[in-house]
Every structure is written in C-alpha cells, then in structure tokens.
Design brief:
single chain; about 280 residues; 2,3-Dihydroxybiphenyl 1,2-Dioxygenase, domain 1; 8-stranded mixed beta sheet; about 35% strand; iron
Length: about 280
C-alpha cells in the first residue's frame, strides 16, 4: 500500500497481550484470517502473506483483563487491498454470525469487531485518493452508515480464504489521557495532524494519508494507564524510511527530554499515556 511503505513512516506490527493463547489463536485464524508465521514459547507471530508479521499475541504470566476507562488500544486496523476483499470478509462474518460494527468514514469503509479479550479490530479498505476531500492541510472524515449491499455485491465473486496477500497494518487507534500533550509527542515522532476536529479524537499521519495514528479521550480525559499485567496493547512498531529520518526523530525526543531505550537493534519509547512504541528502520 502506498502510505504503508517508504518514504512514509507507518505502523507495521502490533503486539497484544491475551488471557488464553490457544483461544486467541483460534479466533485470529478462523475469524480474522491470519496465518501463523512463528511460534515461540508463549508468543505467536501472525501474518497475512507468510512473510511479514502484522500481529503478535502473547499470554504473560498472571495476566488480567484490561480495566475499562484506561488508556491503551482502541483498535488496530488491517487495510485490505480491495473493496472486493472487504465484501468477502463481510460475507464471511455474516456466514459465521459474527457480531460486528461498521462505518463509512468518507476516506474509507470499515468493519469493526473485538477479539475474545475485547481488543478492538478494524478491517477496512481505502477509497481512492481522488475521492478524499481536503480542506487545506486537513482531510474530511466522518462516521456514516456503510452501504453493505454494495460492498457485498463488490465481493460476490471473491471467496474468503483468510486475509489476502497485500493486507497491511493500516493504522493504530489509541486511547489517551490528554489530546494536546499526545499530539505534541507524536509531532516529535514525525506525524502531522490530518483531521483535528473529530469529537474527542485526533488523527495524525505522515504524508497525505488520512491517518496512521488515531488518538481519542473517549475513555475519559485524564484516564489512567493500563496495568502492566493487563490484556491489550504491549507495544506497536513504527517503521521509519531511513536511518537519517529515525536519527532526526531520536534527536527530537532527546531534545524534549523524552526517554528512549535502545534494545535489540530498536529504540523504545512511550507516549504520555504510557503506550509503548518501537522505532525501527527496515
């Protein structure tokens, strides 16, 4: 996908904590359509194309369910190659009687569901860029009812066989405690505001994408961070287009007294709401 490749900075891998690894694996294979890329100890890497890990699921010791009204994952979002693929997924959910939500966001069409631990998942396709409406530097977004019949018709000749090759991690949406502070932090990471006036939320991107990072205070302004041993987001990985861009980002963080730790060839930091982020170049 255009905005999930160089020269943009984008989300590639989301690490989740779950309460029952076997149950979660069954869900992510049979409902979402992932394939196993690698298993090690209590952690499983999941893929769409058999090459790139998009999601990891891990069952830590003494894990507990995430409390409501805390910061952390709102949803991770899988971007499909085509609207026909979205139609095939929608028909699959109908066939298995999966309870879902949906939204037409003007720039995209999306389906929503939760995994067995309540972790939010979006599966979506982008509309052509020529149909996005820009008002200066900001793109118009909304949440409207999808045209389900049109999506199903588009996918009528596409059989669901799991996530198709070409599926990527389109974006991540986070619950945070303070939008203004969090916006400043993600500016340091290289993201600009794409949609500033959504109720209780903010959408940020590199380039002219509608968003790589979604932020909201719907859990409450000043919400507490998720407990370390709770289900939900462990971390997510940002891929930078070059060492030069990453080094500039690290300097931005250092200048602004943001803690960064180097570990196993990657840099790790946390946003103001304690969401952990891994910074890498590939």
């Amino acid at each position: 996908m255009k905005y999930q490749n160089k020269p943009y900075t984008f989300v590639e891998l989301v690490d989740l904590k779950v309460t029952d690894l076997d149950r979660s694996l069954k869900f992510y294979e049979e409902v979402v359509g992932f394939k196993v890329l690698e298993k090690k100890d209590n952690k499983i890497l999941l893929t769409a194309d058999g090459k790139i890990a998009l999601l990891s699921i891990e069952q830590p010791e003494n894990v507990v369910l995430k409390q409501e009204n805390t910061t952390g994952l709102y949803h991770f979002a899988l971007l499909l190659p085509s609207r026909a693929d979205l139609g095939a997924v929608l028909q699959h959910f109908i066939d298995i009687n999966m309870r879902i939500g949906a939204g037409d966001h003007l720039v995209s069409e999306a389906l929503y569901l939760n995994d067995p631990d309540g972790n939010g998942i979006e599966i979506y396709t982008d509309r052509p860029e020529s149909e996005w409406t820009w008002n200066g530097e900001y793109v118009e977004m909304a949440t409207l009812q999808i045209d389900a019949q049109s999506i199903l018709k588009e996918g009528a000749n596409t059989d669901w066989a799991g996530l198709p090759d070409g599926t990527v991690m389109g974006h991540i949406h986070l619950q945070v405690a303070d939008l203004a502070k969090t916006e400043k932090f993600y500016h340091l990471l290289g993201f600009g505001v794409a949609t500033p006036n959504y109720p209780g939320a903010l959408f940020m991107a590199t380039g002219k994408y509608h968003h790589h990072i979604g932020l909201n205070t719907w859990a409450g302004v000043g919400a507490s961070p998720t407990a370390e041993n709770a289900t939900g987001l462990e971390a997510f990985t940002l891929v930078y287009p070059s060492n030069e861009v990453l080094n500039d980002t690290l300097e931005n963080l250092k200048t602004n007294n943001v803690s960064v730790v180097e570990e196993s060839g990657m840099y790790i930091t946390k946003d103001p709401s304690q969401n952990k982020i891994k910074l890498i170049v590939k």
